[in-house]
Amino acid sequence: MTITIHYAFLPHTDADPALAFYRDTLGFELRNDVGYQDMRWLTVGPPNQPETGIVLHPPAADPGITDDERRTILELIAKGSYGALTLATDDLDGLFDRLQAGGADVVQEPTEQPYGVRDCAFRDPTGNLIRINERR
Q1: How high is the pLDDT of residue 109?
Q2: DSSP strand pairing (129-134 vs 118-123)
Q3: Using alpha carbons only, what angle is made at residue 12 by residues 132 and 34, rounded to the nearest 5 degrees?
Q4: 14 in Cβ contact with 78 (< 8 Å)
Q5: How does strand 105-112 pair with strand 39-45?
């Protein structure tokens, strides 16, 4: 039996800047763009991994969420404490330079961590933390 990651979900608060970050700055391809009323769901993913995607979704769109829960979710997103994703690359410095040149919000420059990983970190336009590990 083989189990793979098919989709991961991250919230976005504005679809256009989210798409610009993931497609134009990070280099992912847009696989799906679905609108409903005033909301958009975007599916993006690395071009070399067509079976793995990230769904960028409107936060708290679930009709079962209360107004208080919706406010809490939006507050957590604004603080950058709601969503996170860890990616990996064989060229951490090159990707870091590309993201920085594209105006991404740098949280941490490439650093050798005491737990054996070299990584860097950014926030996407929504505030989600994106860590990038160097493949060794």
Answers
A1: 97
A2: antiparallel
A3: 115
A4: no
A5: unpaired
Closest among 67, 69, 58 to 126, alpha carbons compared: 58
The rounded distance, in Å, linking the Cα atoms of 8 and 67 is 25
Nearest C-alpha neighbor of 18 from the set 39, 47, 49: 39
Rounded to 5, what percent of the chain is helix, strand, coil? 25, 40, 40
- Tokens representing 107 are 């949280």
What is the pTM for the complete model shown? 0.90
**What letter does residue 24 receive in the DSSP assignment?**
I
Q: Residue 119 forms beta bridges with which residues?
A: 111, 133
Q: What is the pLDDT of residues 68-104, one digit of tens each?
A: 998 899 899 888 889 899 999 999 999 999 999 999 9
Average pLDDT, stretch 53-69? 89
Among 104, 101, 82, 94, which Cα is nearest to 20's?
Answer: 104
